[in-house]
Amino acid sequence: MLKRPLARIYRGTARNLALLARRLRAGDVVAVPTETVYGLAANALDATACEKIFQAKGRPTTDPLIVHIHSLGQLAQVCEPNAAALTLAKKFWPGPLTLVLPKRPVVPGIVTAGKKSVAVRMPSHPAFRRLLALARIPLAAPSANPFGGVSPTTAKHVREGLGIRISHILDGGPAQIGLESTIVDLRNPQRPRLLRLGAVTQGELERVLRRRVPLVARAAGRVRDSRAQIAPGLLARHYSPATPVVLHAKIVRAGDANEAFVFLRRPRGQRGRNVFWLDARGELPGVARRLFATLLKIDAMQFAKIHVELAPGDGLAHAINDRLRHAAAR
Ligand code: TXA
Ligand code: MG
Fold first, then answer.
1. pLDDT digit string (tens) for 84-133?
2. Between 102 and which of 80, 166, 207, 238 could a Cys-Cys bridge form, CB atoms 3.0 to 4.6 Å apart?
3. Is residue 199 located within the same domain as residue 54?
C-alpha cells in the first residue's frame, strides 16, 4: 500500500492564507489554529466537504460540528439568533464561546447530526479570522484530533494525530487558551443552559444574561447517554490520553519513577524525568494553556500512570477540572 505523505504545515503568510482559502472553497479540509484548540475545518455549507472531517477524525456522524463565522452577517446566514445570543455575542465575540441556536436550512444535516440546532462560534485567532475573511464561507470545525483523543494546541500535535489523514495545516502558534470553547444552549433564550465549561465562565454568562445558566452536562462518569445526546462531545471518555490518569487534590511528593507526576506549579526541590508542572506559579490561564500539551507529551513517554493535581477555585478551575475528569474516566 502506498504511504500517504504527511500533511504540510503552512506559516500564515498572505500567500499561504490565500491558497488555503481556495482549498477550503474547493471542498478540502484544512487544520486551523484557534485561540482555544486547533480545529479541522471545511466549508460548513458543503455536506461532502464536511464528510471529510468525520472520515479524517474517525468521528461518528452522531457528534455535530461547530460552525465558525467571521461576522454577525454570517451568524444570521446559518442560524436564527435571538436577543440573548446577540447580548452574549456582543460581550464575548470574537472569543471562546459557542452558542447553540435554531439552524437555517442552508446548513447541511451532517454538520448538526440531523438536529434542528447548530453550534456557532466567532473565533478571535487573527490568522483564522483572516482565513475566514478570505474564504467568505462559514467553516465547520471540531477539534483537530483523532476521535476521543486529547485536543491539539499546536500545529505539530495536529500533524502527529492526523498527519497521514489530511494534507494542510495552518500554523498559528500555540493556542492561547488551551481548552475548548464554552458551549451555551440558547435554543430557548428564556432557559439558557451550559453544555460545556470553558474559558468564558458560568458566572460571567450569568452576569451578562442576568439569569441562571445551569450546567446540564456534568463531569465524566455522571454523563448519562441521554445527556450525551444533548452535547455529544461530553461523552465520558472524551479527551482521554492512552495512559491512565489519576487525580489528586494535592500531590505532596513525586513517587514511583515509572509514573508521571504533574503539579499545577513548579514544586520546590523536586526534579526528575517524571516530574512536570503546568505553570511556574500555578496561575490558571497558564495551567489551561499547557494542560493538553503536557498530557500529550507525557502520553508519548510510556509511563504507567499520570498523576495530576486538580485546580483549586471556581471559574477557569472548573473547566480545567472538567477536562481532567474526562481524561481520568476510562
Ligand atoms: O473551542 C472549540 O470549541 C473547538 C475549536 C476548534 O473551535 N472546537 C471543538 O469542537 O472543541 P468539538 O470537537 O468539541 O466538537 C464540537 C462539539 C460537539 O462534540 C458537541 O458537544 C457540540 O460541539 N455541538 C455541536 N453542535 C451542537 C448542537 N447542535 N447542539 C449541542 N451541542 C453541539
Ligand atoms: Mg473534540
1. 999 999 999 999 999 999 999 999 999 999 999 999 999 999 999 999 99
2. 80
3. yes
Measured CA to CA in angstroms, residue 47 lies from 38, 120, 140, 172 at distances of 21, 17, 10, 27
Parallel, antiparallel, or unpaired for β 182-185 and 117-121? unpaired
Same domain? For 55 and 166 the reply is yes
Same domain, 249 and 203: no
The CATH code of the domain that includes 49 is 3.90.870.10
Instruction: Report residues whose beta carbon is within 6 angstroms of any ligand 1 atom.
Output: 34, 36-37, 39, 63-66, 98, 100, 112, 115, 117-119, 121, 141-143, 180-181, 183, 195, 231-234
**Closest ligand 1 atom number to CA of residue 40:** 6
pLDDT tens string 54-93: 999 999 999 999 999 999 999 999 999 999 999 999 999 9
Mutate to test the pocket of ligand 1, among 40, 176, 183 (most ligand atoms within 8 A of CB): 183
Question: Could you tell me if 199 and 87 lie in one domain?
Answer: yes
In a domain, 238, yes or no: no
Q: Are residues 251 and 176 in the same domain?
A: no
Domain shared by 273 and 167, yes or no: no
Strands, E, within the chain: which ranges? 8-11, 30-32, 39-43, 66-68, 97-102, 117-121, 139-140, 168-171, 182-185, 193-196, 245-248, 260-263, 275-277, 306-309
How far is 215 from 230, CA to CA, in rounded Å?
12
Mean pLDDT over all residues of the chain? 93
Q: Tell me the best of 98, 112, 129 to mutate to test the pocket of ligand 1, counting ligand atoms within 8 Å of each CB and taking the most.
A: 98
* Claim to verify: residue 130 and residue 72 sit in the same structural domain: yes
What backbone phi and psi angles, to 5 degrees, belong to 80? -105, 95
Looking at the structure of the chain, the number of domains it has is 2
Q: Which residues of the chain have pLDDT under 70?
A: 1-3, 217-239
pLDDT at 238: 53
Domain of 127 in residue numbering reads as 8-209
